[in-house]
Input
Amino acid sequence: MNMKGHSIFTTTKSPLASRAVWGGIVSLAGAGLGALGYTLSPEDATALPILIASVASGLGGIGAIVGRVRASKKVSFSG
Output
């Protein structure tokens, strides 16, 4: 909230596009792995959300290219 009580968020995004959500997922995964006897260093826990976001971005790019190549209709902005 800003000083006038209004939300500062005016747009939305997918939860999967949020680094905070990915940070929470990584944190929970680290806790789960710890319960199974595995350890995750603080450095790895810090770097993992960035790595996951980068991999997801790359896969999204590949998906976009493959989708466009396999498409059966041309792209048109005129309707």
